[in-house]
């Protein structure tokens, strides 16, 4: 069966729109984009559209490629201090002359809608209440909203990036799964993926996962997105794995829309953080 991320995300967005409409304040996200990376421009556009749809105001800062680290840090400082800005998002990657670590960690953790500051990563690691990165959060949300049990399941996450694989493994662990985290140095990947009740793949290698690597009736979450001949392609060979899996996410319309929905949820969490701090 196909796990429809688009439909689930629509449901979440509708509820968020109602929640935002009922608030006394206007929620504002500061969104910073440096340069003209075409993929980043598409992502930023999608995020702005989604914010507009649920009634979140976006203060956009579109900087030229030549902008300095200081320029970006100044905007973040101003946004950190502005009580009318509730969340801050810096679209990655940044041009190579800007240090991503320094920039991200200059965001106030309470306004860190991407959950990428070391404070939010540390909280997630410690099992404390944290703002979780949107893609892993979206994966867990997709499973829960579709009543797919996580507790006690053997979960294999392929890919260990700080943005996706690692936080996803932590979120599965928090949800009481037994987790294996695989990566490019993993020996006998197939033997490991075959044991998964839930297999989540975040690699960026089209069609890495074939039907023979998947246990019968497993739940397969394809996070990978690579442009192949102009078409967005996942890490899972969809047509053949569909025959083996009980549930599978398509690419597109799977994890992508859930990422955006989770980002919107994070913006709302940040808004409530500000309210709490102001009390
Ligand atoms: N749908 C969405 O909303 C969304 C959001 C974010 C990312 N993505 C997509 O998800 C994919 C992963 O993104 P990312 O940022 O996590 O990428 P990344 O930073 O490049 O990480 C890729 C991970 O895959 C591992 N890997 C590479 N080749 C492998 C192989 N043959 N077998 C097993 N593991 C392998 C790497 O292992 P090592 O650590 O050993 O190098 C690394 O941990 C990309 O396609 C990206 O576009 C989608």
Outline the structure in words:
This protein has helices at 5-21, 38-54, 69-81, 100-104, 118-126, 134-145, 165-174, 189-193, 238-241, 255-278; strands at 28-34, 57-63, 87-90, 154-158, 178-182, 198-201, 219-222, 226-228, 231-233, 247-248. It is of the alpha/beta class. The protein folds into two domains: 24-108, 3-Layer(aba) Sandwich (Rossmann fold); 134-257, NAD(P)-binding Rossmann-like Domain (Rossmann fold, 3-Layer(aba) Sandwich), CATH 3.40.50.720. The strands form three sheets. Strands 5-4-6-7-10 form a five-stranded parallel β-sheet. The protein has a three-stranded parallel β-sheet with strand order 2-1-3, with helices on both faces. The protein has a two-stranded antiparallel sheet with strand order 8-9. The longest helix is centred in the last third of the chain and has 24 residues, at 255-278. The mean pLDDT is 97. Bound molecules: NADP nicotinamide-adenine-dinucleotide phosphate. NADP nicotinamide-adenine-dinucleotide phosphate binds at residues 135, 158-161, 163-165, 182-186, 189, 202-205, 208, 223-226, 255-256, 259.
